[in-house]
Sequence to fold (333 residues):
Amino acid sequence: MPDTVLDTVVVGAGLAGLAATRDLHGAGQRVRVLDKGRGVSGRAATRRARGTGGQDARLDHGARFFTVRDGRTRDLVAEGLKAGWLREWTRGFARWEDGHVRAARPDGHPRYAPPEGMNALGKALADGLDVLTGVTVTGLERHGDVWRVLDASGVVAQARTVLLNVPAPQLPPLLAGLDVPVPDVAYDPAWAAGIVLTADLNAEWPALELRGHPVLEWIAREHTKRPAGHPPALMLHATAGWSSANLERTPEEVLPELLDAARDVLGGLPQIESAFAHRWRYATPTRRAVGAGHWDADLRVGICGDGFTPDEHGPRVEAALLSGWWLAGQATT
Fold:
């Protein structure tokens, strides 16, 4: 059992968890983040795939971009633009409907995407923090005023405060036996497919929003987010309905169908260098919990994430950040 009792342990290195951790660290707390994945950022994820000439492509197979409305998020964007890990991608998308592509109509609202991939946002937030990946937390125990955080091997951390940045359906095992409510959040799943091409499409749009297609809702020319010389690449996102109907199939089974759907929309595809499919079981909150997050001051346990409603603008990257910042504020009082 670890001897050190930390001020806070954060379970989940998604954007909300990292935002909270950064604030707590800045307030002088000893705080550690635990995540079961190999890296940080949660669904703001970027995957490498083989490109032409041995150059890897970077594909955002989770969150596609992000927007800002809150003043604090604007400050984060300003920092990212100045540091170079962020840039504005576009101010509008083309639309596919009834078999026709309609040109983008810029709406004046910036969409931001890091040139190195969406996970650069999480990496920027995690810089200088104590983050342990590859740790699957299985439960929590309360002993006096100290929380014990467990994985399959036993106690992996002790802290006086625990914050959870975990999809609501994964919370019950962690909160078993504790008087902590599970937020009432429901999610749509999403299948995504990344494609690296030997040549670009004959298109000018950075991304295509699809209306009424039976399989796809999004096609992005990923290389338009990247520095010059990046291999041409597409990112496909399936509709919630198609993803739900095909949720338990394997990536190998769904990938050919997603590629065929892209050919249907685009009138064919250039030669494919490499491709992959990825399933997000908890992709988009469709029913969200009221409030910016959950905080129990007596037990010193909190929950944050984009399944909450820190503002009126819907589930998105900024909502996750706002939820994490709010929870950090509660945990430092």
